[in-house]
Specification:
four-stranded parallel beta sheet; four-stranded antiparallel beta sheet; globular
């Protein structure tokens, strides 16, 4: 496989003083509050760093999955994805959604932690899919499972080639859609929703993220390492009366 990690000189992490981190968190909170008060849309974009405190390794950090693979060392130990729980940061974002401050959460993560935190699907765009979600190829019905869909295959479609796959990786889970399995002309085939390398993003998900963000005046992109540090040490909130903590 091609190299997927970044060069060593880009892997250095910087641990700032807790006071500095707290000040930056307060500035983020104030910026979000100010944007909301001015009627601007707030779109929060998250990546792997938001889940490292939940013991899910990132990909290209110093101990990331791709970093370890490319260096030929053991990948970092984490928890099984179904056992991971939303972090303080996930819950803070969920609170911003509940308050009507955050218009949309756009995430590259497939760990389902935003949904577990309570962010409704209508307020969430999972660009790279969801390890726990599989969809019917006929009607588009989605099913959310308790474990990652690829871990345990169902009894159907054994030996069937996934002709829809752009990468050659089969997404067929071996299960059938309850709505379509007995309908004439339909197979009811379910496929997992994770987007792999060389595969296109789901157009409907991408369009939703783009349309909401196109008129943005505030787009908050959380830095992987900064957020990881904040995630372990702080949970900021926005006090609509005027103070942040």
């Amino acid at each position: 496989m091609p190299k997927l990690s970044v060069d060593d000189e880009l892997l250095q992490e910087y641990n700032e003083d807790s006071t500095v981190v707290a000040e930056k968190a307060a500035k983020i909170a104030q910026s979000i509050k100010s944007a909301h008060e001015k009627g601007h849309r707030v779109v929060i974009f998250t990546g792997a760093g938001i889940s490292t405190a939940a013991k899910i390794p990132d990909y290209r950090g110093p101990k990331g999955v791709w970093t370890c693979r490319d260096k030929g060392i053991a990948r970092p130990k984490g928890v099984k994805m179904e056992r991971a729980q939303p972090t303080y940061t996930h819950r803070a974002i969920k609170k911003l959604v509940d308050l009507g401050i955050c218009t949309l959460v756009v995430s590259q993560n497939v760990d389902c932690l935003h949904l577990k935190s309570g962010v409704p699907e209508s307020k969430l765009c999972e660009l790279h899919g969801n390890s726990f979600k599989e969809k019917c190829v006929d009607c588009g019905q989605a099913y959310l499972r308790d474990i990652p869909c690829r871990r345990k295959k169902g009894p159907y479609f054994k030996g069937v080639v996934d002709e829809r796959s752009e990468s050659g990786i089969s997404h067929i889970t071996g299960r059938k859609c309850g709505h379509c399995q007995d309908m004439r002309g339909r197979t009811g085939m379910l496929r997992d929703s994770v987007i792999h390398f060389r595969e296109s993003l789901d157009e409907a998900v991408l369009d939703k993220a783009w349309m909401v963000s196109i008129s943005w005046l505030r787009l908050f992109i959380y830095d992987i390492w900064l957020l990881s540090f904040i995630n372990n040490n702080y949970c900021f909130h926005v006090d609509m009366s005027g103070s942040q903590g």
